[in-house]
C-alpha cells in the first residue's frame, strides 16, 4: 500500500512535468511553425511601433532569445527553487514557487493565482455539496419508484440539466433572480473571512447553477447504479435476513451503487478546482477559471503555464485520492 | 372421481382466509392452495398454481422439479420476498399458527430471518461483497436482537462460524466473502441464516453452485444442524440425489403444480407419476451399466403463460395415449394411492400405472 502510493506520487510528478512541457511546446512551437520569429512573438508584449532596441530588450527580458528547452528548464527550476530575473540593471527575486511575471502586467503570477483559488474553491465546494446531496437522493428515489410520476419528472429535469449549457442557465438565473426579482442583487464575490453570510448569499446562484448540471448527471448515474444493484442477489439476502427496507436500500443497495459515483466525483471536483470557466465568467467571479480565460486572451505564457499546471495538479491529486480511497470502499480491490 | 376431488379443492384454492382465522391444520408450516401469478406484457404467468403441503419441525421436505417449474417462486412466496407489483399471490401460508399471505408487510419482515430463514444457490453473489462475513452475520443477528451489543453479536457470529465448521472462526470472521472458498461461503451463508435459530430453513438449490466434493459436506452440514436446531427444512433442488440424501418427504413440481407428493422412500421405491419416472431415469447412477445411456425426458417444460390444457405434462408423457384422451382435456387432481400419504395427479388408472412401472420403467432405473 505504502509502496503503491509512493509509486503513484512519482508517476503524478512525471505526468505534471509532461503536461508543462506540452503546454510550453504548444505556446512556442505553434507560432514558430506558422513562420513567426521570436522577435515577432516578443512584439506582442511591447507598445505600438517599438524601436528595434526596445524589441530586442523585451525579447531578452522574456527569455525568448534562449533555446526552448532552456526556457522550459528555467520555468521548471523557478517552480522548485525560485528564480532571479534581470531587467537591465535591476534584478528581481521571484520566490518559490515561481511562475514568473505576467508578460502584460509584469506582476508576479503566483500571488495573483493564490488569491483566486479561494474563489474557485468556494464555488466548487458549495456546488459539490448541493449536487451530491440532491443528485444522489433524487437518483435513489427515482430508482426505487421507477416509472412513477416522480421518476419521470426527475429524469425529464435531469435531461434538461445535462443538455442546457451553463452560460444559458447562468444568464437565465441571473435575469430572473438578480434583476427581475432581486433576491440576490449586486452579485459580487465577498471573501468568507470578511462576511460569511454575504459570501454564502452571493454564491447561492452560482452554486445552484453549477450544481444543476452536475445534479442531473449524478441523478442519472445514481439511478442507473441503484436499478442495477437492487436486483443483485445480495439485496434479496438482505431482505431474507429481515432487515428493514430502508437499511436494505441504504446499507446494501446504495453502498454498492456509490462506488462508481465516488470515482466520478473525485475527478469532477479536481476538474472544477482547476477553474470553473463558464460559471466564473457568467457570474463575474474572480476565480482561477476567469484568470485562465484572461491569460489565453492575452497570450500571456506565465499565466497560462500557472493555470495549466494548477489544473493538472488538482486533477492528478484527485485521481490519486480516488484510487487510494477505492481500497476503503471496495475490499476486493487490493494493490500489488 | 376427478370431478369430485376437484370440487373439494376448489374453494380452498381460491378463497383468501379471513385474517385472524384459524389455521387449517396444526402443522408447523402449512401451505394451502398457494398460487403465484405474474401479470406480464405477454400474458399471465402462472408460476405456481395451487401448491399445498404441510411440514413439521425436525422434518425435511424436498421440492423437486426442472428449471421453471415454480420451486424457487414457491419459496420466495413463502418468505414474502416477491415484491413485484405484478405478482398476484393467493392461497394460505401458515407458519406456527400465523397466516403470512395478506399479513402486514412489517410483521412478515420481522418473521424473516428470525422464524424463517433462507439460503440461496450462489453464495458468492448472495453475500454483499463490501462487508465482512462477520459484519453480515452480526447484521442478521442485530436485526432481530436490537438490544444486543456489538460484542455480544460478534461473539454469536464467531460461535455460528465455528458451528458450521469454519476453521479459526475468530480470525476468519473479519474476512470478506471473496476471501472464502465456495464451500466456505455456503457454510458462512448457513451460519448467517441460522444465527437467529429459525424454526424454518428454506434452502434453494444450496449445492448447485458448488464443487461436487463440497456438495456432500454441505448436505451433511444441513442435516447435522437440523438435528441440532430441530428446525423444519425445505430443500429445493432439481437434483434427486440431494433429496435422496436429506428429505423425509418429497413434492414433485411440474409447471407450477404438484404432480406427486409423498414420503421419500415411497417416491423412490414406487414412484407413481410418469414425470417422476422421467426424473429418476435421467439421474446418473453408479450401479447402471456404463454403456447404458441416461434417458432424458423428451421435449421442454411448457411456457407458464400457455400451460397445456388437461394434464400439463401430457405433451411430453409417453403414456398419455393410454388415458383415453382425458389427459388432454381434464386437469388431474392429487389423489391418494394405496398409501394415503402418497398422492399423485395422473390420469392413468392405478393398475395401469403399476403395470407400466413394474414392466417398462423399473427395469431401466
Q: Can you describe this structure?
A:
The complex is a heterodimer of chains A (336) and B (365). Chain A is mostly helical and 336 residues long. Chain A is built from 13 helices and two strands. Chain A has a two-stranded antiparallel sheet with strand order 1-2. In chain A, helix 8 (196-229) packs across helix 10 (245-273). Chain A starts with a helix and ends in a 7-residue tail after the last helix. Chain B is an alpha/beta fold. Chain B is 35% helix and 20% strand. Chain B is built from 13 helices and twelve strands. The longest helix of chain B is centred in the middle third of the chain and has 18 residues, at 212-229. The radius of gyration of chain B is 21 Å and the shape is globular. The model of chain B is unreliable at 1-18 (pLDDT under 50).
Brief summary:
Chain A is mostly helical and 336 residues long. Helices cover 73% and strands 3% of the residues of chain A. Chain A has a two-stranded antiparallel ribbon with strand order 1-2.
Judged by helices, strands and strand pairing, the structural class of chain B is alpha/beta
Instruction: Specify the biggest β-sheet of chain A.
Output: 2 strands, antiparallel
Number of E strands of chain A: 2
Summed over residues and divided by their number, the pLDDT of chain A gives a mean of 89
* Strands ordered across the widest β-sheet of chain B: 6-7-8-3-9-10-12-11
Q: Give the fraction of residues assigned to helices of chain B.
A: 25-40%
Which short descriptors sum up this protein?
heterodimer, A: 336 residues, mainly alpha, two-stranded antiparallel ribbon, B: 365 residues, alpha/beta, four-stranded antiparallel sheet, 35% helix, disordered N terminus
Write the layout of secondary structure elements.
The complex is a heterodimer of chains A (336) and B (365).
Chain A: H1 2-33, H2 38-43, H3 52-61, H4 68-81, E1 83-87, E2 90-94, H5 109-144, H6 149-163, H7 166-180, H8 196-229, H9 233-240, H10 245-273, H11 277-282, H12 288-298, H13 301-329
Antiparallel strand pairs in A: 1-2
Helix pairs in contact in A: 1-13, 5-6, 5-8, 5-10, 6-8, 7-8, 8-10, 9-10, 10-13, 12-13
Chain B: H1 2-14, E1 29-40, E2 43-55, E3 60-64, H2 71-79, E4 87-95, E5 98-99, H3 105-111, E6 116-119, H4 123-126, H5 133-144, H6 150-163, H7 169-172, H8 182-194, E7 200-204, H9 212-229, E8 232-237, H10 240-246, E9 249-254, E10 257-263, H11 264-269, H12 274-281, E11 335-336, E12 343-344, H13 350-361
Parallel strand pairs in B: 3-8, 3-9, 6-7, 7-8
Antiparallel strand pairs in B: 1-2, 1-4, 4-5, 9-10, 10-12, 11-12
